[in-house]
Specification:
Blueprint (H helix, E strand, L loop, with lengths): L32 H11 L9 E9 L4 E8 L5 E6 L5 E7 L3 E4 L3 E9 L5 E7 L9 E4 L2 E4 L1 E2 L4 H7 L25 E7 L2 E13 L4 E6 L5 E5 L5 H15 L1
Antiparallel strand pairs: 1-2, 2-3, 3-4, 4-10, 5-6, 6-7, 8-9, 11-12, 12-13, 13-14
C-alpha cells in the first residue's frame, strides 16, 4: 500500500475547550528509539514493560493534526501500537498479537502472518480517527480491543472535572469583580504540554514545599492539586497576592 503524508490529532483535555486546529503544521515526531523509551519510562507502570523493543512505523492522518505510530514488541510476546501526538507526547497504546509493520493515510497495518495468491503479505487494517482515542473501538482479526491511554495528571483531571470529590469547608467571601485578589471563583489557566486549558475554579489551599495549589472546579465541584509551574502569569500573580494577604 502506498505510504502518504499524514495528519493527526493533539487532544486538549479541558472543560468544553476544543482541540487546537492546525494550519500548515509540520510533522514533529519522536526523534529516535531512545526518546520513545524515555517517554515510556516517564509514564511508568504498565506503559513501560520490561525490555520492550520499539520500532518506527510512520505518521498517519487522523483528524486535524499528526499522529506518529511506533511498534512496541514485548519480551513475553505480542505487540503494542504506540501512539504519539505532534507535540510530540506519548498518548498510549493499542494491544495486539500482530506486528504493526506499515501505515496508510489514516490507518495502521498489522502483519496477519498470511499471504495472498501472489505471495504478498495480508494485512489487518486498523483505522484510527482523530479525537479522543479512548472512545474509539478497534477490532483486530475479529477480536475487539481498546486504546489504553496514559493516566491523567492532576492538572488535567482538575480541568476536566474528573478528580475524586473531596469535602472542603469553603466560603466565598468576596466577589472577584470587586477585588481581583479575593478568594472567589475565577478563571484559571493551566499549561499542559504547550496547550492552555482554561476553567473556572476557586482557591482552596496551597503547599509552598510541594509548590502546588488546590483548586475547586466550579462546574464539577471537584478539587485537584496543580503545580505552580503549570499556572499562567496572571494566576501566579494572583497566588502571590493571596499568600501575602494571608500572611498579614
Amino acid at each position: 500500500m502506498k505510504k502518504t503524508l499524514a495528519i493527526a490529532v493533539t487532544a486538549a483535555l479541558t472543560l468544553g475547550v476544543a482541540s487546537s486546529t492546525w494550519a500548515g503544521e509540520k510533522k514533529n515526531q519522536p526523534k529516535n528509539k531512545n526518546e520513545v523509551l524515555k517517554m515510556l519510562e516517564e509514564v511508568g507502570g504498565d506503559h513501560n514493560p520490561e525490555r520492550i523493543k520499539v520500532y518506527k512505523v510512520g505518521t498517519i492522518e487522523a483528524g486535524d493534526s499528526f499522529l506518529h505510530i511506533w511498534n512496541g514488541a514485548l519480551k513475553e510476546g505480542g505487540y503494542r501500537i504506540l501512539i504519539f501526538d505532534n507535540t510530540p507526547a506519548y498518548l498510549g497504546y493499542i494491544p495486539t498479537n500482530f506486528e504493526p509493520v506499515d501505515y496508510g493515510e489514516s490507518e495502521v497495518l498489522l502483519n496477519s502472518g498470511g499471504t495472498d495468491a501472489d505471495g504478498g503479505t495480508i494485512h489487518y487494517v486498523i483505522p484510527i480517527k482523530g479525537g479522543d482515542l479512548s472512545k474509539q473501538r478497534f477490532t483486530i482479526d475479529g477480536v475487539p480491543t481498546k486504546f489504553i491511554p496514559v493516566p491523567k495528571k492532576e492538572e488535567e483531571k482538575a480541568a476536566a472535572g474528573e478528580t475524586e470529590k473531596k469535602e472542603v469547608g469553603l466560603v466565598v467571601v468576596e466577589d472577584e469583580k470587586e477585588d481581583p485578589n479575593a478568594i472567589a471563583y475565577r478563571e484559571w489557566t493551566v499549561n499542559m504540554k504547550g496547550t492552555e486549558i482554561k476553567f473556572r475554579g476557586i482557591y482552596v489551599s496551597h503547599d509552598v514545599k510541594k509548590k502546588t495549589v488546590t483548586v475547586k472546579n466550579e462546574k464539577s465541584g471537584t478539587t485537584a492539586d496543580i503545580d505552580f509551574s503549570a499556572l499562567s502569569a496572571a494566576d501566579v500573580e494572583y497566588m502571590k497576592q493571596l499568600i501575602e494577604k494571608q500572611a498579614n
